[in-house]
Amino acid sequence: MKFMVIGADGQLGTDLLKVIPMEEVLPLTAADLDITDRNKVFELVYKHKPEMIVNTAGYSRVDEAESDAEGAFAVNVEGARNLAQAAREIGAGLVHISTDYVFSGKKNSPYQESDRPEPLSVYARSKLAGEEAVAGTLNRSFIIRTSGLFGVAGCLGKGGGNFIDSVIAKGKMGRPFSVVDDQFFSPTYTMDLARKISQLSRTEKFGLFHVVNHGACSWYELAVKTFELIGLTINFSPSRFAELNAATAAKRPSYSVLDNAHLRAVGLDDMRPWPEALSAYLLEKGVAAQ
């Protein structure tokens, strides 16, 4: 199967290149392809004729999107639509990555694919509109919502790091810091997500999927587990989500835990619990306690 991976140098794209055989994949970075350039999208898709396009590109600067709605919608909606239209023209499939932020957080149990989205921010609205653009254009699509990604490459759209890297760095500096303890989500290792994308995209089970590591935690609990696994005793304090949410431009859900209901229904939900995934990530990074 021939894959075209968009955003191949990003956090998820890097791991996709590790799990998809080299001879099956054409990696494209942002320098290779701006997905908002419709003509370029069609040119490359027609030239290479992939069987499956995996779109990991996206505008992910949540707070900046509040003052740059045009930029967020250009990438997250029009870019996604361009890829879906090009895929439709050659009979290819498309994997499109979305987010837990499409939900409001008003629910107190894990969100399933059947739950109604209620985005709180420009970023979240753009991601939901991107889902709708893909689903409305291409039947052969996998729309994958995920959450709290961490991977070795780090997120290019957020400066090349992730929360875990950041909290380890803060801990080693020895200065006081705090982490939110009442915002809950589903931490997800990009290597596990990449493996599931590779597996799912080789099926005909198209549709909307939640794909996260099992379980839920707060950012504070994730930090505590991280320090436990790397063998550091760090003193840091919990902070309140309401204080953080009041101080940022974009509003975020206080609860965005996802349930892999559709994966489970098709017999493909073998995602491991997030603490196991975190341990594997830290081992891959070379920072886990021996």
From TrEMBL:
InterPro entries: dTDP_dehydrorham_reduct, NAD(P)-bd_dom_sf, RmlD-like-bd. The keyword Repeat does not apply. Signal peptide: none annotated. Pathway: Carbohydrate biosynthesis; dTDP-L-rhamnose biosynthesis. Catalyzes the reduction of dTDP-6-deoxy-L-lyxo-4-hexulose to yield dTDP-L-rhamnose. This is dTDP-4-dehydrorhamnose reductase. CDD domains: dTDP_HR_like_SDR_e. Its EC number is 1.1.1.133. Pfam families: RmlD_sub_bind. The lineage of its organism: Bacteria, Bacillati, Saganbacteria. The keyword Hydrolase does not apply. GO terms for biological process: dTDP-rhamnose biosynthetic process. Keywords: NADP, Oxidoreductase. Belongs to the dTDP-4-dehydrorhamnose reductase family. Residues 1-282 form the RmlD-like substrate binding domain. PANTHER family: DTDP-4-DEHYDRORHAMNOSE REDUCTASE, METHIONINE ADENOSYLTRANSFERASE 2 SUBUNIT BETA. It is an enzyme of class 1 (oxidoreductase). GO terms for molecular function: dTDP-4-dehydrorhamnose reductase activity. GO terms for cellular component: cytosol. It comes from candidate division WOR-1 bacterium RIFOXYC12_FULL_54_18.
